[in-house]
């Protein structure tokens, strides 16, 4: 009988320990933030970046950023993490890291890249030159309030189409990342472009001071989030065999993802 009671108590202790270990809620008095890399397509076969770390500034101070400032928290990956940005189309995301922060504000983040960045186009590997100024990290203004007890998904949008620059007659291809960040519940637009034979299809959202681009995924779907409420124009630019199209008067409301009716492009 004593052995039975002992075994039962041991089982309860192990169960309680397991429950504590698997608790995914934020620590007391803090908020949990999940950092995702999202939707970053362009007209290449592959675009690979080497991500070393993510640094996060989480306070209410307006002072100039400093690497020695103890308000920065670093999320370091195990070794380097190689990411094909073109896997992140049609709303696909990649979790970079998760951390708890005191209630307050996520002010700014820095994405730290290594030097082993390249793209594949027509089966050829082309090295991406990275300016030395990026060694301290790619600065992204966030300015988002977070409340204790809540969990948030912060999306980092890497615009590949605008981030890759051919340098004059040298032939060098430079990686000058264009990034923005927003909370997942931010409003935006989503939809589908057909036929699939029209791919690659570039999708541009313009209006209210916004000019954002993405490409459709293999099923013709697209998602663009993190834009302000307002009225926008959608421009669809397919391959040379199909006619482009424009959709006007798209209304985006606060906190909502507007679904645009599926567009069917026509042959020239």
What is this structure, in a nutshell?
With 268 residues, the protein is mainly beta.
Structure description:
The chain is mostly beta strands. It is 9% helix and 52% strand. It has 2 helices and 20 strands. The protein has helices at residues 2-21, 160-163; strands spanning 30-38, 46-57, 72-84, 93-102, 104-113, 118-121, 124-129, 138-146, 151-158, 164-167, 172-175, 179-183, 188-194, 202-207, 210-215, 221-225, 230-237, 245-252, 257-259, 263-264. Strands 2, 3, 5, 6, 7, 8, 10 and 11 form an 8-stranded mixed sheet that branches. It has a 4-stranded mixed sheet with strand order 4-1-9-12, with no helix packed on it. Strands 13, 16, 19 and 20 form a 4-stranded mixed sheet that branches. Strand 10 (164-167) and strand 11 form a beta hairpin. It starts with a helix and ends with a strand. The model is unreliable at 1-23 and 60-65 (pLDDT under 50).
Q: Assign a percent range to the helix content.
A: under 10%
Regions with little confidence, pLDDT below 50 for 5+ residues: 1-23, 60-65
The helix/strand class is: mainly beta
> Looking at the structure, what is the overall shape?
globular
Quickly count the helices: 2
Question: Would you list the SSEs in sequence order as H and E?
Answer: HEEEEEEEEEHEEEEEEEEEEE
Task: Tell me the radius of gyration.
Answer: 22 Å
**Percentage of residues in strands:** over 45%
Query: How much is the average pLDDT?
Result: 80
Secondary structure tally: strands: 20
First and last CA, distance: 85 Å
Biggest β-sheet strands, sense, barrel: 8 strands, mixed
């Amino acid at each position: 009988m004593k052995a039975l009671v002992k075994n039962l108590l041991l089982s309860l202790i192990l169960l309680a320990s397991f429950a504590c270990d698997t608790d995914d809620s934020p620590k007391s008095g803090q908020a949990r933030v999940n950092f995702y890399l999202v939707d970053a397509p362009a007209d290449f076969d592959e675009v690979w970046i080497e991500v070393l770390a993510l640094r996060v500034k989480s306070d209410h101070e307006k002072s100039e950023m400093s690497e020695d400032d103890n308000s920065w928290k670093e999320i370091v990956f195990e070794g380097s993490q190689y990411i094909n940005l073109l896997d992140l189309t049609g709303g696909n995301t990649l979790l970079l890291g998760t951390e708890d922060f005191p209630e307050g504000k996520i002010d700014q983040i820095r994405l730290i890249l290594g030097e082993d960045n390249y793209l594949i186009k027509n089966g050829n590997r082309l090295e991406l030159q990275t300016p030395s100024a990026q060694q301290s990290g790619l600065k992204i203004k966030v300015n988002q309030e977070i409340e204790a007890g809540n969990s948030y998904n912060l999306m980092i949008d890497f615009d590949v189409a605008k981030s890759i620059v051919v340098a004059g007659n040298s032939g060098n291809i430079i990686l000058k990342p264009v990034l923005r960040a927003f909370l997942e519940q931010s409003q935006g637009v989503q939809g589908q472009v057909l036929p699939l034979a029209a791919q690659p299809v570039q999708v541009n959202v313009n209006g209210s001071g916004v000019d954002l681009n993405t490409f459709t995924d293999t099923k013709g779907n697209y998602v663009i989030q993190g834009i302000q409420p307002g009225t926008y124009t959608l421009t669809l630019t397919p391959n040379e065999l199909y006619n482009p199209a424009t959709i006007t008067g798209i209304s985006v409301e606060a906190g909502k993802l507007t679904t645009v009716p599926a567009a069917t492009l026509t042959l020239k």
